[in-house]
Amino acid sequence: MSAPLLEVKDLHVYRGEAHVLQGVDLAVRPNRVTALLGRNGAGKTTTLLAVLGLLPGRGTVRFDGEDLLAERTPARVRRGIGYVPEDREVFTALTVEENLRLAARTPEAADRLDMVHELFPDLAARRKQRAGSLSGGQQQMVAIARALLNPNRLLLVDEPTKGLAPVVVRDVVAALEKVAEQTTVLLVEQNLRVAERLATDVVVLDHGTVVHRGDMAELFADTDRASALLGVSAATGPARGPSAGGRS
Amino acid sequence: MSTFVLIVVTSLGLAGLYFLLAAGLSLIFGLMNVLNLAHGAFFGIGGYAAWLTMDRLEVVSSLGLRFLVAVLVAAVVGLVVGALVERLLIARSYDNHLGQILLTIGLGFALVALLGGVFSYDAQPLVQPAWFGQTTELLGARIPNSRLLILAVAVVLLAALLLFLAKTRHGLVIRAGVENRSMVEALGIDVSRSFTLVFALGGLLAAVGGALGAVYFNGISPALGTTQLIFAFIVVVIGGLGSVTGTALSAVVVALTQQLINFYGAPGLGDIAVVGLLAAVLLLRPQGLLGAVAR
């Protein structure tokens, strides 16, 4: 088995008084999509923010064997980590073009812009439009496009389909499938059908600790186990269940 | 009619000073969440840099040319002082808001005391080109040329600042950082490098304001900038934190309100009206005229 691209060991994070992550251990293997699942408040988003350095953490976070915790966020990102945040967080006062120009930090970005426009033709047509005036789906495309402009080795993707219309979800999932062909992805996703379709590996969090890790298909084949871990009805089946939690 | 025109144009000159003092303050707070209570001292330092240049640079015999040099010297001094203050003092307290407030209050007092100690607390009259005291007729009103000059410089600097924000990579980072600093960092951009630049730009604008303020107020005294700082804060809040265009718009509204009511109402009433305007904006539109958008 190949060495993990991202390795998190005994990660503890506090948000105010709350001890949100209580010793998280997980590994993300290269060229795979790992889904990070769990109920509301389990610590999924907190894990991504701590990996990026947007929240302070204690423990070990290694990317390609290098310890990240002593580094500030920009230095971690420049190692090749892209981030698609929950709620998109596009710069609403900037145009689509400016959002992308801001994100472009490597010489390869100019060439990759064509690939981004091929993936999201709408963005090329709307490049002069303020991002704040875009629909939720279009903003999500901007958020994903920003992460794709640079040749990142790992993408942290936080609930990319949250609040999107089904037709837009289809486009976003199709784009992420193409992305996953070239990049390792750590995906937080509340839509289990989407998570099942995209991910090969799964890590399940509960109350700030990892309660399951393994193969995605195996977990979803065991509906009782999936129901117990993710809190969705076994009768419904996790693949059709609407949610496995929200921001935490 | 001519009196009204005179007051309006004079108010626009004052608006130019308010804008120069407030623009940096607004960007600094919008991007860095730092309330720089020492910003008024940058205004004073610029005023004294201009005063010294006008007083000592006798090698340049043309007073007009010497004033141009004086404004440039003030700009450079403001730029350097702003950068030094950020690097040496503010950078150590980014996560400590109370510390920042105490630090900048203390720095403001210390710089005023330093200026007072070096130059005395008496106002020093600025040597000015004769053209500044002459007037230009506009819609029947005789407008002092100095007011037109201040207005013109402020407009040029506003245009330059907007161009910088719109067309440069640094400007793009600042505009994005004002809106969402964490997300800019999550794109791999070290925003703290922009902090020094914004502080230096704020220092430059305030110092140029000080040089022009020495003309407007017929001299410079150590606390001149500090006394104007309260109006600059009002301009920033009304304009919207982080918004340069909002600051410019707000500076015009505040200066017109202040001067027109002072003249047509009663002296001092305009200052109270400005505070009333601030209260109204906070109640009805707390994000200010143009909100937190650096443009």
Description:
The complex is a heterodimer of chains A (248) and B (295). Chain A has helices spanning 44-52, 73-78, 96-103, 109-119, 121-125, 136-148, 166-180, 192-198, 216-221, 223-230, and strands spanning 6-15, 18-28, 33-38, 58-63, 66-67, 81-84, 154-158, 184-188, 201-206, 209-215. Chain A is an alpha/beta fold. Chain A has two domains: 6-80 and 152-239, 3-Layer(aba) Sandwich (Rossmann fold), CATH 3.40.50.300; 94-151, no CATH class. Chain A has a six-stranded mixed beta sheet with strand order 6-7-8-3-9-10, sandwiched between helices. In chain A, strands 2-1-4-5 form a four-stranded antiparallel beta sheet, with helices on one face. In chain A, helix 3 packs parallel to helix 6 and helix 6 packs parallel to helix 7 (166-180). Chain A is globular. Chain A starts with 5 loop residues before the first strand and ends in an 18-residue tail after the last helix. Chain B is mainly alpha-helical and 295 residues long. In chain B, a hairpin with a 2-residue loop joins strand 1 and strand 2 (141-144). Classes of the chains: A alpha/beta (248), B mainly alpha (295). The A-B interface holds A 52, 54, 72-74, 77-78, 83, 85, 89, 91-94, 98, 101-103, 105, 146, 150 and B 172-173, 175-176, 179-180, 182-191, 293-295.
Task: Give the helices and strands, then pairings.
The complex is a heterodimer of chains A (248) and B (295).
Chain A lengths: L5 E10 L2 E11 L4 E6 L5 H9 L5 E6 L2 E2 L5 H6 L2 E4 L11 H8 L5 H11 L1 H5 L10 H13 L5 E5 L7 H15 L3 E5 L3 H7 L2 E6 L2 E7 H6 L1 H8 L18
Parallel strand pairs in A: 3-8, 3-9, 6-7, 7-8
Antiparallel strand pairs in A: 1-2, 1-4, 4-5, 9-10
Helix pairs in contact in A: 3-6, 6-7
Chain B lengths: L1 H31 L6 H18 L6 H26 L8 H23 L10 H4 L1 E4 L2 E4 H23 L1 H11 L1 H6 L5 H25 L7 H16 L4 H21 L4 H16 L11
Antiparallel strand pairs in B: 1-2
Helix pairs in contact in B: 1-6, 1-7, 1-9, 1-10, 1-11, 2-3, 2-4, 2-9, 2-10, 3-9, 6-7, 6-9, 10-11, 10-12, 11-12
